């Protein structure tokens, strides 16, 4: 498949200022409403020569949900949706990684939202590695995945007079990750 550079091996940590984990859902069946989480941690342990041995761990503070509407955000934090008092984190831990094309992977893992854990497969594109002007080595990853929120206990809804419901069951998760290499090897520092 891809020709990987062994210098890509090692731990990579998402730069929160240059990383977005977001979502969109239909509102009133006619428009999409989006948001993101402001407090996220992503750690990738990469093995360039054997990608299947790589791992990904994601931890999101559920209370950091931000849709740019304070009233909606409070409702999303409530027991009707995320119930952040009882379930403060959304987590994803990879269980397998398969390269399916050049720089494209299927990452299987355990996603936990509230008190429900399900196995999900997430397509991930590796967008490359670059050295920034501040001496850091960065790697980029992006992808999206549709989920049924009801599968994770997010049941709240209101029927509409015109048919349908106020909030769609399907939610599209998307992410753009800029990860910084931890502890680069001495050869990389030169």
TrEMBL record:
Domain of life: Bacteria
UniProt cross-references to InterPro entries, sorted A to Z: Lipid/polyisoprenoid-bd_YceI (IPR007372), TTHA0802/YceI-like_sf (IPR036761)
SMART domains: YceI
Domain Lipid/polyisoprenoid-binding YceI-like: 11-180
Gene3D superfamilies per record: Lipid/polyisoprenoid-binding, YceI-like
Family according to the record: Belongs to the UPF0312 family.
PANTHER family per the UniProt record, alphabetical: PROTEIN YCEI (PTHR34406:SF1)
Protein name in UniProt: Polyisoprenoid-binding protein YceI
Annotated source species: Raineyella antarctica
């Amino acid at each position: 498949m891809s020709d990987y550079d062994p210098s890509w091996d090692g731990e990579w940590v998402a730069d929160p200022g240059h990383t977005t984990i977001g979502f969109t859902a239909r509102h009133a069946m006619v428009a999409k409403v989006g948001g993101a989480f402001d407090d996220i941690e992503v750690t990738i342990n990469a093995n360039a020569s054997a990608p299947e041995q790589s791992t990904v761990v994601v931890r999101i503070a559920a209370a950091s949900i931000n849709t740019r509407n304070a009233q909606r955000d409070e409702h999303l934090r409530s027991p009707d949706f995320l119930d952040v008092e009882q379930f403060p984190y959304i987590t994803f831990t990879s269980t397998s990684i398969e390269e399916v094309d050049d720089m494209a992977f299927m990452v299987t893992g355990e996603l936990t939202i509230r008190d429900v854990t399900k196995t999900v497969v997430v397509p991930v594109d590796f967008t490359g590695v670059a050295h920034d002007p501040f001496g850091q080595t960065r790697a980029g990853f992006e992808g999206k995945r549709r989920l049924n929120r009801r599968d994770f206990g997010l049941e709240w809804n209101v029927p509409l007079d015109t048919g349908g419901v106020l909030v769609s069951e399907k939610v599209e998760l998307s992410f753009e990750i800029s990860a910084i290499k931890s502890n680069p090897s001495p050869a990389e520092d030169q």
